[in-house]
Amino acid sequence: MQGSDLTLLVDIVDAGNLSAAARRLKLSRSSLSYRLKALERAVGAQLFKRTTRSLELTEVGRALHAHGQIVARELAAAHATVSSLGKSLHGKVSVSVPTGFGQVWLNPLLIDFKRRHPGVTLNVVFDNQITDLVSEDIDIAIRVLSRPPESLVATDLGKVDWVLCATPAYLAANPPGDDIRQLQHARIICAAAVGQPFKLIARSHLGNDPARLEIRLVPEVQSENFAFLRDATLASLGLGILPRYVVAEQLRNGTLLRLFGDHELTVFGSHVFMLTLPSRYRTQATRQLMTWLRERIKLDDL
């Protein structure tokens, strides 16, 4: 048994099945299956419980996989060390970012990082869903969540302040009233809630025991693109429920006014998280980009 046999096992587990692993390794499925069977013969035990849809490691397979992860990380570290000697930062980093936060916050940060490190290849994917980092070959994912997945390493980058806002003209024609529960009858502009009712969670800052309200809404304008939702709100189509980082400038110059500022609002997520795989070796370029983003994403500065 050689080190390459152990890293092959890691590649298969990371990919999730033989077909995906074969594509990533640029092998035919039959060739990969032959190498796996040869490894099992050498070990004298079956390494996977095979099903029609997925592969599950046996007890022997889990033990070898743990050793394989160590070998893979050490090989990647050695390669990165040799490759970087006397050279500027280089390599490929794949980043998955949400559309709204990506356009407002991350676009300039990623462009500045690339300008400073021209040898780095950036692959930026705009996606609002919880990405399978392995199958999508993603090194870093940025997501707005209330709670990160337990299977990933999560770094909290800051709290998201959701605001309810509208133009002065819309508010003059459609007074919102004093009770936040009246929003059930308002024209709402917000991102779509996929596969579930749209719920706004509101907590009042007044009093020593903040009341928690759950308000079901039916948005009249929905999109995953927060820039479009901001423009729809500026066009006086309704009340926008948006992250403050999307409308900070408009709130400062008065083209949008904030409503119910004495309430803390939550819609889809309350924090921005940086997500990475626990088992994947982080190249120098990946580590540098993670530090770059962590040091520059300052949501409280808005």
Using brief descriptors, characterize the structure shown.
D-Maltodextrin-Binding Protein, domain 2, 15 strands, 3 domains, 302 residues, LysR family transcriptional regulator, Arc Repressor Mutant, subunit A, alpha/beta, 5-stranded mixed beta sheet
Description:
By secondary structure, the protein is α/β, with parallel strands linked by helices. The protein has 3 domains: 3-84, Winged helix-like DNA-binding domain superfamily/Winged helix DNA-binding domain (Arc Repressor Mutant, subunit A); 91-160 and 271-301, Periplasmic binding protein-like II (D-Maltodextrin-Binding Protein, domain 2, 3-Layer(aba) Sandwich); 162-266, D-Maltodextrin-Binding Protein, domain 2. 39% of the residues lie in helices and 25% in strands. The chain has 9 helices and 15 strands. The strands form 4 sheets. It has a 5-stranded mixed β-sheet with strand order 4-3-5-15-6, with helices on one face. A 5-stranded mixed β-sheet has the order 11-8-12-7-13. It has a 3-stranded antiparallel β-sheet with strand order 10-9-14, with no helix packed on it. Helix 1 packs across helix 4 (59-84), helix 2 packs across helix 3 (29-43) and helix 5 (99-116) packs across helix 9. The chain is elongated. This is LysR family transcriptional regulator.
